[in-house]
Task: structure prediction
Amino acid sequence: MSAASSAASSGAVLGIVLVFLVQQFGLLALTSIVTSVLYLVVAAIVGGVVFGMAAWAAGRKRASVP
Amino acid sequence: MHYLSKEFFSRDNRGPELRSKRVGVHFLLTPALFVAALVLVAPLMVSVDGSPSPTLRGPSEQPLGAIPFSASATWNGANLSSAGSPATAFSIQRGETALVTFDYTGLGTTDVANASLEVTYLGIVLTGAKALAHVTGGPPVTGGSRINWSFGPLSNALEGVFQLTASLLYLNGSTAWSQSFYVVVKTPYDLESGTVIVLLILVIAELYWAVSSVREARRGRKPGPPGSPASPSSAPPASGTPPAASGPGPTGVGGPAGGPPGASPPPGPSGSGGGGGPP
Result:
């Protein structure tokens, strides 16, 4: 497993956990299953993309340095 | 693209064909704008304040001349419609009890049997409470019910915003009236809830793993510092040196013991002299 994919999977889980945390702090209501799954999927995608891109960019930047 | 060009719309070219085409464009554009405006305004027309309106079912289709069925409910004296969104949710502390009062009126409503309150979370009914409804007068029939509701033992594990549904039920179990509203369940200290603590630990752990993965990626294509073992992705193992016959340390200064005499060993992953520079 590459570092970028590892960071992406961690980011995806982080996004899902953050949705539940926001609900626990009273800022979001997870009432219906469809809306909840939508929130969770979007958060997972956003987290995965953000951290995956960060890891990919970090590796690419370092590779370009002589 | 021809119709969008400047020459095409210049006054010289305006002929009957163009006019008819432009009228055609307007003919299509006007309904499209109307539909777009309708789509934008329709949600505002359904509910101006954003709160869900009560739902009447069953005998709401009263016979002509009858007083229509109407019902309302309050949470500690406040109307449920005032908590129609998570932002305006009623607040309840752990261990606290709220009094939910139901009132209904109308002819032909003597068969309203129960009042119920249900908590919905992720589409699942977590917990609920039910109380008998009683007729208080009439005609027209008036009645009501009261439920002393608390979140119960679940508040030790869960807190946050939850949707509750208050309903009046007929004898056969069908719903006469229902309204959804939101409640924020709070603990004296927000971190007291078990789920919050677990979620915070998970957030910290995932952040650590994600950041360390990013760091790994940053180091991945760069040789490590002298004396430290390089990461496997950056330094492929030296070929031709069996692991059992390798040198004394990971730096590979000694060279293979079983190699031919006088032959210089291949450089190790981090160099034999501690250079560690880029290849």
User: Anything to note?
Assistant: The two ends of chain A are 26 Å apart (CA to CA). The mean pLDDT of chain A is 86. Chain A touches chain B through 37 residues (CB under 8 Å). Residues 22 and 28 of chain A are 6 Å apart (CA to CA).
